[in-house]
Specification:
The chain is an alpha+beta fold. The chain has 8 helices and 16 strands. The longest helix is centred in the first third of the chain and has 27 residues, at 63-89. It is elongated and about 85 Å long.
């Protein structure tokens, strides 16, 4: 009996030693990967079976030998049950928080020189999006490097949440640039969407499947004709934003097929009233032109400090007949000479935006607003749990014009903005 107990004790000591060695190699970034861990376990299992078989053969008629095997079997049963219980709970507690922290940190280096950490992804990880598909980490990383070198992407993560037992979902924005057409136009491509990352149930820190979806298309399957059309539409967008002119900073949170949702940072404006009863925001209209000249006079030196300021873009005008120039924060202390001009700040705000080219007269502007509201309703019907909450009032519908009157109408960038209270999304938070 004592000899059998010593055998069991020795066996358990060896088992702990093997498991400890495997865990240590994993934490130290061992190059063996998952196959290495499986190999270690296989060696131990074979040794264990041989030891048990030998012990049973040598003492088959002994009740003490039977007791030894029962102890080991009970330990295995307990371990298996514990593993099943943990897996049934999915990602929870410290494991979940650590995984979210690791993924957030890792994805922040998606397109820089550091790159992603291979230890967070299985060797046979499956990656799909509407335009690409890979079934290995090497292919997955190749796609990242290709995007990095060709399109110079800027990736921004907005949120990361657990959405199933072993599933993590991130929401992101990615901007890409094509510097290969500097003399024709400068295409800027913007995509928003979700990354659904399925984690290995045995090794929850490893992603085994990564599926990207875009907000701007319905057909997400590889290879999506909608996705091809979306890329071409953005590449061949010939509207121009004036170079070397400052614009308010914003983040595109959602880009849908016909509009996008932006969050603007705080900025400052010089404001005046158009004093028109026609509701027209066309810059060629006399009263709108007069309002424009009053604001231009302020930034070009008609202020108490006689200080000239740099021109900015866009010019905002709303249905409440207010016109605004974007100005620097320092302008908050520079008082206008003209009493009809006031300097004020615009706090951080959320808007739905639809773009169009050409001359921004009242008819086109009103039609764009109508289509924008219809597009929001359409997206609500397509995406369960999503609801846009527009703010009510004429002051919350604006026209933004980016170009001077001498710009070719086909290249003019015009936008209709509708302020939003928020967006409800039952699936994952907006920000």
């Amino acid at each position: 009996m004592r000899e059998n107990v010593r055998e069991v004790s020795s066996l358990e000591t060896m088992r702990c030693s093997v498991l400890h060695s495997s865990a240590a190699s994993r934490c130290c970034g061992s190059s063996y990967g998952r196959s290495g861990r499986r190999s270690s376990r296989s060696v131990f299992v074979r040794f264990h079976r041989q030891r048990v078989a030998a012990s049973s053969f040598e003492s088959s008629s002994s009740s003490s030998s039977s007791s030894s095997v029962d102890v080991d079997g009970a330990a295995q049963t307990t371990t298996t049950e514990r593993r099943k219980e943990e897996e049934s709970k999915g990602l929870t507690g410290e494991t979940l928080q650590k995984l979210k922290q690791d993924l957030t940190e890792d994805l922040s280096h998606l397109f820089d020189d550091r790159g992603i950490d291979p230890k967070l992804y299985a060797e046979n990880v499956v990656f799909t999006d509407p335009l690409s598909k890979y079934e290995s980490f090497s292919g997955y990383n190749f796609n990242i490097q290709m995007l990095k070198n060709v399109f110079k992407p800027i990736y921004t993560m907005h949120s990361i949440e657990k959405t199933n037992d072993f599933e993590i979902t991130t929401r992101w924005t990615m901007k890409m640039y094509l510097p290969s057409f500097p003399f024709l136009w400068n295409p800027e491509l913007t995509f928003t969407g979700r990354s659904i990352m399925e984690m290995d149930q045995r090794f929850p820190h490893e992603c085994v499947k990564h599926v990207d979806t875009w907000d701007s298309i319905e057909n997400q399957t590889y290879l999506s004709p909608e996705a091809v059309q979306e890329v071409l539409k953005q590449v061949f967008n010939f509207t121009k934003t004036p170079e070397n002119l400052k614009t308010p900073k914003y983040v595109t949170l959602r880009r849908y097929r016909d509009f996008e949702v932006r969050e603007y940072e705080k900025f400052f404006v010089a404001e005046t009233t158009v004093n028109s009863n026609t509701g027209s925001a066309k810059m060629e209209d006399s009263e709108a032109g007069q309002a424009f000249n009053r604001l231009a006079g302020y930034i070009f030196g008609k202020n108490e400090q006689n200080e000239k300021m740099e021109m900015t873009t866009p010019v905002f005008s709303n249905k409440n007949q207010k016109m605004q120039f974007v100005v620097e924060e320092i302008s908050n202390s520079i008082k206008p000479v003209d009493g009809s001009v006031a300097v004020k700040d615009r706090e951080r705000f959320l808007v739905a935006v639809a773009s169009f080219s050409g001359i921004a007269n009242k008819e086109i502007t009103d039609e764009t607003e109508k289509k924008l509201r219809e597009a929001m309703k359409r997206e609500e019907s397509i995406n369960d749990g999503v609801e846009f909450l527009p703010r009510r009032g004429d002051e919350f519908v604006e026209l933004a014009q980016y170009n001077d009157p001498f710009t070719n109408p086909l290249q003019r960038r015009n936008e209709v903005l509708i302020a939003l209270e928020n967006i409800r999304d039952d699936f994952i938070a907006l920000v």
